[in-house]
Design brief:
Blueprint (H helix, E strand, L loop, with lengths): L5 H17 L3 E6 L11 H10 L4 H12 L2 E2 L2 E2 L2 E2 L3 E2 L10 H10 L10 E5 L2 E8 L2 H20 L10 E5 L11 E2 L2 E2 L1 E2 L3 E3 L2 E3 L6 H8 L1
Parallel strand pairs: 8-11
Antiparallel strand pairs: 1-7, 1-8, 2-5, 3-4, 6-7, 9-10, 12-13
Helix pairs in contact: 2-3
């Protein structure tokens, strides 16, 4: 989308956090991580998605040929591996690769009906205003939907790299045990969000220290 950037994404989050502080409620944000996102795109699933959004069958077949009929090799430490064919993934560093990836995951936010979400390429965070444990349960429901979407689309979440940040200035915040596939997510004291380090009180001291000291 034109005229959108990481700054736009962060400004949207800032608006949500400040609104939470002003209205004296909590905003829980779940930061997700997709395992080897660009390399895991299934060609068959991608073709179905392209046809669904209106790509002509000939164009879809041409793109399938472009993606699948590639020979790769690995060069490391002055040693070259044997050639092999790829079975998934869009080429990074190309013009088409990022576009095809975005088209593949574009529908992911539709699975988060009870919550808001902000997406920048493969960087996805979902959030919800938390006034009670019932609100947190709805956010957990969306997290379950997100996990199921990943299974269906063969694009799995890296649970170890997913985390929670509860933005609040309350002395007694609401704690909820969010989990993915039975694995509890860590409650973070700070996160790096698109290159900006932030904490639960939305204080940028850590970010300034990292950049300026």
């Amino acid at each position: 989308m034109t005229k959108r950037s990481t700054s736009t994404n962060l400004l949207c989050l800032t608006d949500k956090v400040i609104s939470a502080f002003e209205d004296n409620y909590q905003l829980d944000v779940i930061y997700t991580d997709l395992s080897m996102a660009s390399d895991s795109i299934d060609f068959g699933i991608l073709m179905k998605k392209l046809r669904t959004i209106g790509f002509h069958v000939n164009l879809a077949q041409w793109l399938f040929s472009y993606l699948s009929n590639r020979t790769l090799y690995v060069y490391f430490n002055n040693v070259v591996s044997g050639a092999f064919s790829n079975t998934s993934g869009v080429p990074q560093g190309s013009n088409l690769g990022p576009l095809l990836f975005i088209l593949f995951i574009n529908g992911i936010c539709c699975k988060l009906g009870f919550s808001g979400c902000l997406l920048f390429v493969d960087d996805l965070k979902c959030f919800r205003q938390i006034r009670s444990s019932a609100d947190a349960a709805l956010l957990q429901n969306n997290l379950d939907n997100l996990y199921q979407w990943g299974i269906v689309n063969k694009l799995l979440l890296n649970v170890e790299k997913c985390s929670i940040l509860s933005f609040t200035r309350k002395s007694q915040p609401i704690f909820y045990s969010y989990q993915i596939n039975g694995i509890l997510l860590l409650q973070s004291k700070s996160v790096s969000d698109l290159g900006v380090t932030i904490d639960p009180r939305f204080d940028f001291t850590q970010h300034i220290d990292k950049r300026c000291l």
